[in-house]
Amino acid sequence: MKKRSCIVALILSILVPGLGQIYNGQFRKGILIISVLFLSVYLFFVPFTANIFSFLLSFFAILFVLLYAIIESVVFSCKVKEISINSFNRIYVYTIIIVIYWLFSVLVLSSPKELKFHLYTIETWSMEPTILEGERLYCDMRYFKDHTIVQGDLVVFSFGSSQNDTYLQRCVATEGQTVEVIDGNPFVDKKPIWNYGASLRYVPIIPRTEVDPNIFPEGAGNVDNYGPVIVPKDKYFMLGDNVPNSRDSRLLGFIDKRLIKGKPIFVYWSSDISRIGKTLK
Known about the structure:
The chain has 281 residues and is an alpha+beta fold. The chain has helices at residues 6-15, 19-23, 27-45, 52-79, 91-109, 143-146, 249-252, and strands spanning 117-121, 136-140, 154-159, 165-173, 178-182, 185-188, 191-192, 226-230, 235-239, 255-256, 260-269. 32% of the residues lie in helices and 21% in strands. A hairpin with a 5-residue loop joins strand 3 and strand 4 (165-173). Helix 1 packs antiparallel against helix 4 and helix 3 (27-45) packs antiparallel against helix 4. The N and C termini lie far apart (63 Å).
C-alpha cells in the first residue's frame, strides 16, 4: 500500500492525459482515457465532414477529455489515502507510455501531408473581398484527391524552387482554356468572368503598350492587359479575387497539378466576428 501524490498525478496527467489515472491504480480508466483521446485527435485531424460544426465538436471533445483526465486524477489522488501497488505502477511503465504518446503526437503534427486538414492564416489582401487579410482558414487537404478542380474553385497550392511557399487563389481556367485580361477585366474563352476586386483598384490601368518583364510568359503584356494564353495539359491558371493587387499566374505562371495541396472550406477566425464560420466559395 502506498499513498499517492496530487502533484505527481497532476504532472503525469499533463504529460499524458490518462497517465494520472494509471498512477492512481485506475489502469482501465487510464487506458480508456488515452484511447478516447487518440480517437478524438484522429477525428479532429480526419473529420468526417469538413465544416465548422465538426471542427468545433472535435476540438471541444479533445478539450473535455484533457480537463477531465487532469481534474479527476488530481481529485482522486488527494482523496484516496493509499492504493495497492500493481505491476504497472513502475517508473519504466510511465516512461514507455510517455515516449509512445509524444512520439505519436510528433509524427502526426509533423506530417501535414497525411492530415485531413490544415489551418492557414492569410497574410495578404490578394483574395479580398472574398477572404480578408489576417483571417484564419480551415483547408481540406484531401478534397482534390476525390474531386476534379473546376473553374471557380478556391485552391491552396505550393510554389517556389523548394515548393515551400503556399498560395491561396481561385482557379479561373483549366487545360485548353484561353485566359486574357483586358483593361483589368479577366476573360476566359472570350467570356468575362468575376472581378471581385474591381472596387479595390487604387492605381490607373496599365496600357497594353507597357510590357512588364516579370510577366509570364515573356511578352504577354502586363497585369492589366494580359495574354491571351492557353492553359497547357495538367496545368491551371490562378487569379487572386483582388485582380488588380494579386501575385498570381500572370507572374507565377501556370500551376502544375502536382502542386495542388487542398481547398479552403471556411473561416474559423476573423477580426470581423460576423465572418467566423463563413463557408468559402
